Task: structure prediction
Amino acid sequence: MLLSRRVDFERRMRRLPRVTAGLIALLLFVYSVEIAFDALDTDHAIIAFGALFRPAVAAGEYWRLLSATFLHGSFDHLVGNAVALFILGMLCEHAFGRRQFVVLYVASAVGGSLLSLLWSPGPSVGASGAIFGLQGAAIALFRGQRDRLLVRDRRIGVVLLVWAIYTVLGGLTSAYIDNGAHIGGLATGWLVGRRLHPVVLEPMPLERERVLRRWLWIVWIVLAYTAVGWLVR
Result:
């Protein structure tokens, strides 16, 4: 009887979530620009292109906290993150809706970059901090709503575990990837995820809508600041 009262999480889930698909397309485009401008040839080149670098951030280039999360250090790095982003993006966009998903992604990216700065001076790049944030939010959701949600296909957890292990190992071996961003993103995503409203279970109350609109304004301002700083660097 208990199972019959649970909400089937996968019911009506989009197989091509719009925001997630747009993010993946943007990551692919940015990587193609990196290759075209030889941004991966030297540390100096990737720093000039927008990588996270402690001295540059200390000098006032705070936009690097986000710009670095759109860059990647290799094609393998990009593909691994794109696959994980597709799976976790599909899950989180379905669970929280597109607007809350945007807030979650940006907050996790910034949280990952902040711990990355403390972890190492850089340069570092990659979307994995933000993606670990999606994983943190998913953990918060399924633990907090385990009595209300029914997940039929649990194989996705195995795929994400393999990706997480692969990414952490990459942080130990790659010059441009660090595990500080992974830990920071995971923690930020878990904290933010606990505050998000699961629209997969019920519509968002009006008061939560008002709060969400305020947070979205902050996110758009941060994104605009990042875009301007990145383009006129």
In short: The chain has one domain: 3-231.
